[in-house]
Amino acid sequence: MIFVAVGTQFPFDRLIRVVDEWAAQHEVAGMAQIAGGEYLPQRLQWERFMTTAVFNQHLQAADLIISHAGMGNIITALEHRKPIIVMNRQHALGEHRNDHQLDGLAWMGQLPGVYTASTQDELYALLARRHELQVTPLAADARRQALVDFIDQAIRR
Amino acid sequence: MSDKPKLLAISSPGGHWIQLNRLSAELENRYQVVYAMPAALFTSTSLSERKVYAVTDVSADDKWRLIPCALQVLYILVKERPKAILSTGAAPGAVAIWLGSLLGIRTIWVDSIANVKQISRAGRLAKKRADVFLTQWEHLSNGEDILFKGAVL
Fold first, then answer.
1. Residue A134 sits in a domain of what CATH number?
2. Complex prediction ipTM
3. Cβ-defined contact of A71 to B108 (cutoff 8 Å)
4. Domain coverage including residue A74
């Protein structure tokens, strides 16, 4: 099972289409969250939007998450210990307001369990070795704890 | 319970909200956290025990919504009288920072970890008013009014 999700803000037909076509070729089942997209998946089941509870159910049921390069889906996938492939939206194709998803791709790929693709070919190469994609539990939360403690002190001042 | 200081945690839905929750979850034992965000659809599962206000979403594409959003945030601030405001973005958080600072509330902005190359647009607006302005990237910090003290990941 795969779960492909594009967030809530904008459609991302390019991603949905290539994943749906791949799933059809490889007879893989899965679910797609497509937001306001015009392309309707033929092979995958789909919903436009989901509540968090339903979203998490689909995420749990999947072995692999494929997503736009959005932080929300990355954090949620890692918290559920699911490997995630992210593909960046492109400003030039009208897929986002700017190219911050491309800016973030290099460091996202350094997170264990996060795999990045900026083209269909790169995405298909990752899907070809999908059984090797691994996730490790989120590293000790030292960075988060430091930030929380600083915020706590900043409030109390 | 009620002797804990009150904190308003506000963000847009999606990635901003998930980052906000990774911070606020740790703060809930030290503060009485009240939440605000646009739309009720994309909420966390543990939301039932929490106090969450809905506000009108606003973005660069629909600036007119600033007015209802600001009125709603103002209502929340007057009603709840939080000691501090924490936001991870985007525009509704910047609105809360501005209004909070006018009301003398302590304001803290944590710019989204998605903004690797530069501070977000909403962040640049919030920075004019925020008491504490944090980036999640060391290279974006200047050690003065843009601080790096950690990250959600």
1. 3.40.50.2000
2. 0.93
3. no
4. 2-156
